Amino acid sequence: MLRRLALAALAAFSLSDAHAGDTKLTQALTGFRKVSTNVYERIPSNTGTAAGSSRSWAVVAGKAEATDAVVISNGPVGNLPVTAKGTIDKVGMATTIASMFLPGWASIALQAAKAVYDQVRVSADASGNLTADPGQATVQTTVYQINPTGGVSTVTTGSSPDAVCTAYIDKKIATLSQSSGNNTFSYAQQTYPGYPTATTCLKYINVHQVNCPSGGGQCTVSDTQTSGGGPIVQTTGPTCPASIDPLNPANSIPAGGAIGADGKCPTARYNHVAATVDDAVAKASQYLTADQMIDALKKAIEAGGTADILPTAITGPVSQDGTPVVSSTTDSTGTTTTTTTPKYNYDYSSPTQVKVTPGETVQTVKPGGATTTTTTTGGQPNNTTVQVPDFCLDYPDRAGCKLVGEPPSPENIQTESNNVHVSPEGGFGADSGTCPGLVHTVSLGNVDVFGMFCKFMAGIRFAVVGCAWIIAAMIFIGRTE
Question: Is 372 in the same domain as 443?
Fold first, then answer.
């Protein structure tokens, strides 16, 4: 269950989650969003792209490289065409392909995933449960082959020179004995003069052919002797032995199967074991090359999968010009025309950002035709990137979405001084803090009503003052519990 949940999390990785760090490649093309006045940030989506965007693939330094040709539609002068590159290592490729084993994926991507993992003998059932075949060792086998001659188009293989010669001539007789027309028949007979060496097949064939005219008449007979063929080539190398399934012979594997990418041979069903996604990914990334997996990776991503990508480069035009602004002034000497053209220089040194340095070119044409041109470049873009919430991309005018710009300089902030005087307020008894005096009554005379209470308070004064100091100290050091 944990394995299935892990695969589901991998396959359902959302685009919004991928914004943090720009580390996921999705079926959508790479996009860019404007995060400050002069900075465009790379994100794994087609936000901000326009028509003309495309993706291409290649294998570079043992990794899959995705190249996205993207048009940033909200560039300084409109469309800004750039190319964003990123690489996916073999672990990322194998992980993405393994996610296609989940039920519900497009059949094309699923078949591509199976083709990849068949090479390391890992398979999945209809529920996505993985099993692996540990494999068995190869065996050294000597085989004999005779090169095709005399119209036989396939190589004949045998376990001995005699066996390969016999099989070869049988195949050649079958070819020569075919009817070559409605009234033309042929047959062949072989003779066996012997085998002078073990590497040459000297058997030859007598072909007796009868040709009869289609309209009737005399038939003709022709005899042709053809070479038996050769030479015989002996090869010794690793081959896969047979594997018998005693529970169900139909699942047995005959000898001569394909050797796997890990150098081992397939075994019958009874030898298969349960496998985890990590097991499958480890085998594929260890024994397969990027070339063997890139086609399946492309299909997996096109079907909705995601892959870990390392952004490597962004390229694009060095600069773009804005719309020129023309102004003119007239005096006693004539008319002076000034053309101001905004110029935006682009910095692609970061693989995740495009930074813009604004400037302008001013061309002045004075009376008489004298022309001067001045180019100025603004300061470098602020390296502090302001993270714009996603909803601001759709609602840039909302409160909290507009960039606040730079704070004013301190000397421009006005100050005002006010004198504040604090004086005690009276009317709450004696300011000395002493106990109230005696209370005079008619029947009892002067009575000390507050005497006992004042003595009690005087007795606990030290405890009250001590608690106050402790609380003050806790407030000072920031203790909140």
Answer: no
Q: What is the DSSP letter of 243?
A: B
Residue in the block written with tokens 């490649």: 25
Task: Give the confidence band of 62 by pLDDT, cuts at 50, 70, 90.
Answer: very high
Provide the percentage of residues in the chain whose pLDDT is more than 70: 71
User: Measured between alpha carbons, how far is 18 from 308 in angstroms, rounded to an integer?
Assistant: 10
User: Which candidate, 344, 305, 348, 319, places its Cα nearest to that of 32?
Assistant: 348
Going by C-alpha positions, the residue among 249, 251, 267 that lies closest to residue 138 is 267
Nearest to 173 by CA among 190, 185, 161, 156: 190
Instruction: Classify 359 as helix, strand or coil.
Output: strand
Q: Which residues pair with 407 in a beta bridge?
A: none
Q: Please determine, for residue 12, whether its predicted confidence score (pLDDT) is greater than 50.
A: no
Task: With beta carbons less than 8 A apart as the criterion, state whether 84 and 42 touch.
Answer: yes
| C-alpha span between 141 and 367 (Å, rounded) | 96
Are the beta carbons of 166 and 146 closer than 8 angstroms? no
Q: Does the residue 432 lie in any domain? A: no
DSSP 14: -
- Number of domains forming the structure of the chain: 3
Residue written as tokens 């080539």? 233
Examine the fold and report which residue of 191, 216, 236 is the final residue of a domain before the chain moves on.
236
Residue range of the domain that includes 335: 319-377
- Round to whole Å and give the CA distance between 356 and 82: 13
**pLDDT for residue 1:** 38
Question: Residue 365: which CATH number?
Answer: 2.20.25
Helix axes 290-302, 90-98, angle to 10 degrees: 50
Q: What are phi and psi of 99, to 5 degrees?
A: -65, -20
CA distance from start to end of the chain: 43
Q: What are 33's strand-pairing partners?
A: 41
The position carrying tokens 């209809």 is 126
Q: Which two tokens stand for residue 180?
A: 């070559």
Element containing residue 289 per DSSP (H, E): none
Q: Report how far residue 243's alpha carbon sits from residue 229's, in angstroms, rounded to the nearest whole number.
A: 35
221 and 147 within one domain: yes
Sheet holding 232-239, edge to edge: 156-158, 139-146, 232-239
C-alpha pair distances (Å), 410 with each of 112, 382, 403, 405, 418: 64, 20, 20, 15, 20
Give yes or no for a contact between 183 and 193, defined as CB atoms under 8 angstroms apart. no
Choose one of 362, 377, 392: the last residue of a domain: 377
Q: What pLDDT band is residue 394 in, cutting at 50, 70 and 90? A: low
Residue 42 contacts residue 353 (beta carbons within 8 Å) = yes
Q: Looking at the predicted structure, is the pLDDT value of residue 386 above 50?
A: no
Give the predicted TM-score (pTM) of the model.
Answer: 0.59
